[in-house]
Task: inverse folding
């Protein structure tokens, strides 16, 4: 896919809307083509998005988003640079997408709480609530025309953030720092399964699991948002949602370390997987990312160009 086609998809689809609207700013996104990771590092330096700033306690993150993972990351640059630099690039490139995904969830959560607090709701309010309930799999039938108290309570439990430290550690683990075949072919950072023949076929399929593939995505942020929706809806992760709700009720922000123990069933490796994710959070000092926030400024969309851009 050429860069012109990538940009056309970016500006003509829902992705641009996902990226450019902040809580207080409606901004025009700036698109920047790049051919080397060094250009990205220069941009980070210009934006003050540096290791030095982070170590000084600055948690403001620029709205810099990657349109797609270029194949040259897997095939060339990840092999040439140091492990430390590879990790820094991965976390700093994915971090804004994680924060933006949570920002969108919190916007829905805030609106949901305002709706629940109302004495009465108009038809537009009810329609929005039903749409959110369907998205979060509280209801699935078109015949439902209102939500009960228990359904609204469960919806509030589901519409909430996934701590950035947990997202970043899992993405790094699942995708091999963005170098996996699935990340390369489909911006897939979490190995989510899909059925029906439209996914990326694994080289070795597990017997008895049906006609599954790995879901592909238009962009890394789409992969992040799908992963978050999975944790927020699938029955397997009910414990995560319940623990997060308890933390909220206690007046505490959910953190990756507080929730990681609930992911025993995320992987067939069970507790060993949980221990590994916890260690990745500790070793890479990701705890501080749970206090990060996006700058209130126009976004920059990085579009790979040149050889290996696809």
Result:
């Amino acid at each position: 896919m050429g860069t012109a086609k990538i940009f056309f998809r970016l500006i003509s689809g829902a992705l641009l809307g996902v990226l450019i609207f902040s809580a207080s700013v409606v901004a025009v996104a700036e698109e920047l083509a790049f051919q080397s990771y060094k250009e990205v590092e220069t941009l980070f330096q210009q934006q003050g998005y540096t290791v030095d700033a982070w170590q000084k306690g600055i948690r403001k993150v620029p709205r810099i988003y990657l349109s797609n993972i270029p194949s040259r990351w897997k095939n060339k640059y990840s092999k040439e640079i140091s492990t430390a630099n590879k990790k820094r690039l991965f976390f700093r490139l994915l971090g804004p997408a994680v924060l933006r995904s949570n920002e969108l969830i919190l916007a829905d959560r805030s609106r949901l709480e305002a709706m629940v607090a109302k004495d009465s709701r108009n038809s537009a309010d009810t329609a929005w609530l039903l749409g959110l309930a369907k998205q979060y799999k509280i209801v699935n039938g078109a015949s439902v025309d209102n939500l009960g108290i228990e359904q609204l309570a469960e919806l509030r439990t589901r519409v909430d953030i996934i701590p950035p430290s947990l997202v970043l550690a899992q993405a790094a683990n699942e995708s091999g720092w963005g170098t996996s075949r699935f990340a390369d072919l489909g911006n897939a950072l979490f190995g989510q399964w899909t059925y029906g023949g439209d996914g990326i076929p694994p080289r070795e399929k597990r017997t008895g699991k049906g006609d599954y593939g790995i879901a592909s995505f238009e962009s890394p942020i789409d992969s992040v948002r799908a992963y978050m929706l999975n944790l927020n809806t699938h029955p397997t992760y009910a414990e995560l949602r319940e623990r997060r709700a308890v933390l909220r009720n206690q007046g505490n922000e959910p953190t990756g370390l507080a929730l990681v123990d609930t992911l025993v069933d995320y992987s067939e490796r069970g507790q060993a997987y949980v221990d590994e994710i916890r260690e990745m959070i500790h070793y890479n000092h990701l705890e501080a990312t749970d206090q990060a926030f996006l700058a209130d400024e126009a976004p920059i969309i990085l579009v790979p160009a040149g050889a290996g851009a696809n």
